[in-house]
């Protein structure tokens, strides 16, 4: 029987299908009755589930993270859709279709990674070329990079999102950079590749995306510089060549300054043309990606405008309906 | 005899060649002697000229704006190059090579305008196509647009600079826009064309670039909207078709919001994807153009850095010397 | 039987009287029961209404905007007053006293409009006088202006509020302007008249006050300049006289700069004495009007202070009780 | 022989008339020669004077503050007018016409003070009335108040300027306040009277206006509150009535909050309607006064605009010439 | 039977013990039933109490502020702990152990006050010494100071907190000041003592800490200066010596500028070394105290981080668990 | 013959003594005559020197950095003291007393370093203790650290200043930290030691203090983290123990966040108590040091105030003269 993705649920639908139990709580209402409050998830999103008059008997049959077969009906409460459950059955992972739950799109990641290799291969400056290979030859890095998200919320906030954003920016670099005579395309391309790699350690991409301790204490900009230091050391070891100090500082500057202003967490503002370009290209791709996704996921029923979105301080135009 | 452009003058050169007298003053020194202070210009820039022990006899032989044949010698004073003049002779305009003095590059403008026509021709939406033609069919507009500057100082601050910046942005739009599925390329291309047209009336491009009264009182953003209103009326008259109100508001929004934030003079922030894209593409081209020109014209002799430039709040890296 | 205005309702009152159904929703509670959630309005304000155990049978008998006869009882819930309804009957508009529901006060508007004519009549500068007449002779403009609100919330946020605020400011101009020798009273009076006229198209005054698409995309400042352009063209046509370009730019500047700083949406800051005066007089009237209305409508029961009001970042002193 | 005021001097004039020596220095030029550098003043302004080849013989014949008879000629140096002196003679104060040098206009102060008494007399609230009398009965206060300046530069920056600004504001209060029903005119009038009185101790009005130590360490806002405390004590003593604590706090609040926002040095923002009104009326009068005076004293020769004035961040429109 | 402090309550506990009724409301639920909503307090904190199906019969048996014996059970609702009450009995104050309810720790205050006397006794400058004694000899001041809080929320927000913070800062002054040669330790010590004394009148420390009218209208900085003026007058009377005007301005400056910047409510920024030191020492102690208390009272169950705290714009690290 | 230090020079002194030629230029005056412009330095400061009517004959006899014996006379020009030279003789370095020219005070550095060792020895946490030893055992680090400056201008801007500032802060930590129970003194002491070590590579301390390329591109915060990484690796190698990852992140956070807010270049704000304390202690010492030095070096002759200092936005009180 075909499953309806959470993203496609509507008011008043009857359901009998698997979900993942992202979170669960047993609560007591004002009259003293108990009920179960769930966060149900699949790859398309999450939804609140409520099971009234339920107690430990049901609550203890499954754990957070388990797949559960849910019977119930959707309804709108305070403007949000939720599922009122009448039955919950724990399922064996083997019983569910993993593709319904995995937010990571392996095909997309494969395509992006192939394109990443091609783009890095266009770098002709030998030291940068060798450095790029050190990253690509590091299986552990490749594995983490493919899965990493670019943000907790905001733009490209899903497993594989960092790779998607990185490749997007590198494509823009290849289109734009040759139009500006004084900009070094190889350097800018490498900057686009490196600029957010620290996010691999800043964010936990498995389960719900969240900050690691290291991410909160040190931040992806400094982590990115640390990782670059390790890879330069590996490159020197593998090539037997000292990596140019000046070039290293140029790369570090690209990472360090890419937020453009101190107020957004860059400890240095861009002072090279490549750093200026990188900041603006990053901004362009990040803004178009996040604004597009706000429009996509907007649930305001009527009219041409999204709901007011505090993080961007505005409503967006969705187009004449 | 070949003329040395102001841009190429160096300390200690002997000169006997034409300049334009951009400004002139007769001054008295502390000991009561008189001298002439000049601002000399050619297409490559301006320089201060001083003629000691000179009085009305010489001063009254030429007017501001005249071409003058100057004999003298360059020297550095307080860190700036100037010319110490020993003789000044007014010249007939017919005697000078106009190409030495005209900051407007007609060839470049022709090429840019040809490219502008091609880019506007790619617009397939009929109403936008017709509107673009109204602009192109207006000879007075075309004449002004070709000569207009994009700024008094800062980026593209020369006659023809507005056209250069506009075409540049339209090129970027054609490269970037197709990569974002929800962005309407025709609309964005039209936005890039329209966004700064109000500068034609905001700035005086003949002589030294400066603000008009209208420019200071009303500003290019509102002027651009006014001009658009006139052209839409012309388009309606020529096509016999009512221009869509919704589409008009979209275009007005692109002009009105292209500075991105209120603090920079946009009375509305971008709320359509095209307006968001336009703002960031404008920023990217303007910043790369102005930073490149700061590096080009920097005179700091030693080392890898430009002088500190207050308008951008930083020194720029010029590259390993 | 006399009707109690919403503004005068108190806890524990029994009601049987007409309201307008400003909004309606059918909801399902946690136990699966249905209930109706209403926004009831009259000219004095709005209040939430709840009808428990009600379903489509009742819900479908009336539409949003209909008048309904409501039986029920008021109660305080989470600190707000609401009405618990036991019966709802749709009414014919002829059955209700329109004066109970019309937030627009026609008498007040008549008085304000008479005063507006008198104030505009004091303008002696011929071109400004003729321009003012063009506005007054435009019946469609007059009709819209009388009904327009000055804001969605904040100051003068009711139908007729724009006229009220405009006349108020013009009165202040007549009192204050003659005290400053260099200020042109005619020009300043005209500026006070024109400064917010763009709000006629920015806001929808019928039903709940809200932004139009044009209002959100273009904004009342630019719309006001566009409207002025149309009226100047009409004036030129009716008088057969070219309107002075310099004077036109002065008027446009008054509209364009009246928010005083870029951060508040003025694309130009005030640079004429009249524009400086206009900004401060606008501020004075708007602030005193909105702060007075916050004090009037404050419901904090105890003491000398209003509740903290986030939009103004403070509590206000209500006076020693 | 009639004297030319400094304000009316022009380039190339021959002079033989008295000035006040506001400042004097004996300097050595690069060739080792000595010269005298003077700051000459009269009631219309100040100007630099230079006497070449002058030494102690001349320098020691007069002191700072003395009147001196100067023979010489005006000239423009680096864009500023100065006087090149050939002879200096110390004068007896009895020889000069004091009205040429006294920046304080006693007639104007008399008129303003008469009007001040009338305006304070309109206060009907008994305690405020009595308090006002305490100020008026204090001869030392009256004497200081008449002479005080409202600022070092900026608005009303001349002896008598504080009184002028205070009376101006009180006039505005009488015109504006009755239009706002909830505003207490007596209280607001008293606020306008009190708001800047601390400037009497903050600034030294004799000689060049400058900050006192107390002014720099404590500031006029806190000083104004201290002075009010003293006057309330005197009022209580003279009337034998306890001054209402609540009313006292209202008055203190008017002084304390009149700059409107913390960033401008008010330790509290306005929270009473009178304080809100006071802040905006102060702003209106101060801005119109200072902008008018910038236009009056502007020396830009050509065109419709003043020079760019950093303190207000703009050029001002001087009117179509 | 031993009482469990509110701070130590956990989910699912059965209770039968006294609380203070800090607040009480009788409410009606959606079904029309009545219930009592209470704010229960003891010295360790406050908690919400709910008594279902209770009406005036119970509600009227006690007043706000009374001690009540409560029977019931704790539960978590929406993430907060509350008490569901089944029985409420008003108690006589004599029946409760006052030490369970008194948030003021008299022993701690005694110790702090003793230390305050010792620290003030180290001041050797005679005028400052005498001034300090005037404060200490004022029993009414001493009484109020011991009980005062330093804030409504934020740091040292409890009765006795102002004394605690003041003594802490004076201890830091004695440790730090001698390391900076140009800093006058006596003056700085006196500044630390005086800087927040205005809070005695700004805040009501009895019952729930809240702002007084004077506090909101005038603020503790100005009040502190007023209090200082009174004490200087007393000191002059008792010693028969005029207090140095310069020294008085130094002390006033320390109070007036201690918030460091205008934006935080100081009408003057620090311009003496002692004022600079005072501001930074205040900041250091206040931040460490408030951040420590946020960590102490954080209830986030899992992991190393507190919840996000809006007032400080961050999560805090609680340490590796 | 005893030498007068630059700091002690006054107007009108005759000189014949050595200086170091920090900079030299040969210039041409308006009349075409040549002169030499020098920047003379010794350990107490720098001063401008002018030799009139001097040409290549003298100019070429010495190089920048050479010691020269100067004969001449001091004079005030435009408010600054300068030396008019009549004779210049190049000297052999052996002829001068090095202690007159060396801005680095070796004794002071020795004392500071001894104290640094003592303070680091108080750290009892084994891993931190071992890490501190790694720094102390690195001779190249020790050598650089002793000579490093803490700033180009501002606080501790001299060779040895970084060590001075570091030891000062560590002393404050030992005094203050034990007063706050939740603060880990070992960690905070280590943070004070590490926080600015990146300045060793950010600034060039030899000759005039200036930024290195690495300093401008990467900045001392990121460099400090890089250096820490190297030292942790050395410590692991020497102890054979893995350094705790959590502890490493704590140390990195102390470096990364010590500027306190993003706007001042910290890519992360302080989120641990130690980081909060470190930021405030750094601020306290830096401000008191720089303000004290502004007062010391102020040259305003008259009165109680320094000149207005733009970098701190204020005049400072120098004390009653």
Low-pLDDT runs of chain A: none
Q: For this structure, what is the CATH class of the largest domain in chain A?
A: Mainly Alpha
What's the number of helices of chain A?
A: 11
Radius of gyration of chain A, taken over Cα atoms and rounded to an integer in Å: 23 Å
Give the mean pLDDT of chain A.
90
Identify the biggest protein-protein contact and residues per side. Answer: A-B, 32 and 32 residues
Question: For the largest beta sheet of chain A, what order do the strands appear in spatially?
Answer: 1-2-3-5-4
Oligomer classification: homohexamer
**Main beta sheet strand tally, sense and closure of chain A:** 5 strands, mixed, barrel
The number of distinct structural domains of chain A comes to 2
Sum up the overall morphology of chain A in one term: elongated
Protein described:
Chains A, B, C, D, E, F: GO terms for molecular function: hydrolase activity; nucleic acid binding. Chains A, B, C, D, E, F: It holds the Pfam family HD. 6 copies of one chain form a homohexamer. The first copy, chain A, folds into 2 domains: 6-99, OB fold (Dihydrolipoamide Acetyltransferase, E2P), CATH 2.40.50.140; 103-294, Hypothetical protein af1432, CATH 1.10.3210. In chain A, helix 5 runs antiparallel to helix 6. In chain A, 41% of the residues lie in helices and 18% in strands. Chain A is of the alpha+beta class and 321 residues long. Chain A contains 11 helices and 7 strands. The two termini of chain A are 34 Å apart. In chain A, the strands form 2 sheets. Chain A has a 5-stranded mixed β-barrel. In chain A, strands 6-7 form a two-stranded antiparallel ribbon. Chains A and B meet through helix 5 and helix 11 of A and helix 5 and helix 11 of B.
């Amino acid at each position: 029987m075909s499953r309806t993705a959470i993203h496609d649920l509507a008011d008043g639908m009857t359901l009998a299908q698997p979900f993942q139990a992202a979170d669960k709580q047993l609560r007591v209402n004002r009259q003293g009755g108990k009920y179960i409050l769930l966060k149900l998830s699949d790859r398309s999103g999450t939804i609140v589930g409520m099971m009234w008059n339920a107690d430990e008997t049901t609550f203890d049959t499954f754990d957070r993270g388990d797949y559960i077969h849910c019977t119930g009906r959707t309804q709108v409460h305070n403007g949000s859709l939720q599922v009122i459950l009448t039955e919950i059955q724990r399922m064996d992972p083997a019983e569910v279709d993993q593709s319904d739950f995995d937010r990571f799109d392996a095909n997309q990641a494969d395509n992006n990674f192939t394109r990443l290799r091609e783009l890095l291969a266009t770098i002709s400056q030998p030291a940068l070329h060798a450095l790029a290979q050190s990253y690509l030859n590091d299986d552990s890095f490749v594995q983490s990079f493919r899965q990493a998200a670019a943000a907790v919320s905001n733009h490209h906030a899903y497993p594989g999102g960092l790779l998607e954003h990185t490749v997007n920016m590198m494509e823009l670099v290849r289109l734009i950079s040759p139009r500006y005579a004084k900009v070094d395309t190889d350097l800018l391309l490498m900057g686009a590749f490196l600029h957010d790699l620290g996010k691999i350690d800043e964010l936990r991409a498995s389960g719900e995306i969240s900050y690691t301790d290291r991410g909160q204490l040190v931040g992806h900009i400094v982590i990115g510089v640390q990782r670059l230091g390790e890879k330069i050391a590996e490159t020197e070891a593998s090539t037997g060549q000292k990596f140019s100090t000046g070039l290293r500082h140029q790369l570090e500057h690209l990472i360090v300054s890419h937020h453009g202003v101190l107020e957004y967490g860059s400890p240095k503002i861009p002072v090279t043309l490549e750093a200026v370009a990188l900041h603006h290209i990053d901004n362009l791709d990040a803004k178009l990606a996040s604004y597009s996704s706000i429009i996509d996921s907007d649930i305001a029923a009527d009219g041409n405008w999204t709901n007011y979105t505090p993080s961007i301080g505005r409503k967006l135009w969705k187009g004449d309906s």
